[in-house]
Amino acid sequence: MRVLGVNAAGGKLWLCLVDDNGVLETEPTYLELRDGPHAGYAIVAFRDECVHALTALSPNRVVILDMEPGRRVPKVADMRTRFTAEALLASCAVDAEVTCVRLARATLRSRLGLPRKGAVADHVASVFDTPVGKYWTKKRDLAAVAARAEIVGE
Questions:
Q1: Residues 62, 68, 74, 78: what is their CA dihedral angle, to the nearest 10 degrees?
Q2: Each residue of 1-55: pLDDT tens digit?
Q3: What DSSP state is assigned to residue 73?
Q4: CA angle at 87 for the pair 86 and 91, rounded to the nearest 5°
Q5: 143, 14 contact by CB (below 8 A)
Q6: CB distance 144 to 130 below 8 Å
Q7: Dihedral angle at the C-alpha atoms of 119, 108, 110, 94, nearest 10 degrees?
Q8: What is the distance between the alpha carbons of residues 6 and 102, in angstroms, rounded to a whole number?
């Protein structure tokens, strides 16, 4: 099974493809929904990027990692962009006949046997001991862990 993990951070959806053997080095490493006066065009362009990524990476499933509970409260504008991007990606996955699910961090911890104490990012090394590719720490690493949890839960 090839699972595309998705972690939203810093205004981007960070991507990491994982199969039964581990993390696969892939491009693109992230998708970004632009904001501004031409938001309608940005949404169309973002959907095209999602379709391209799903076609290029050919996952069997997409798993979108939920926010870390109890952390700082993001700005409304950041949350709006995040949720819009996640919804557009999920919509493109459905159009491509790829199952798309959301994964709560508590479920991730349970499936992988991670401690409840600390952030999920603090425990990445117990799942993947070697960083894979660029933009790993607190970006693609969390996408990879989400994908691994989805494979384990299958």
A1: -10
A2: 999 999 998 889 999 999 999 999 889 999 999 877 777 888 999 999 999 999 9
A3: P
A4: 120
A5: yes
A6: no
A7: 160
A8: 9
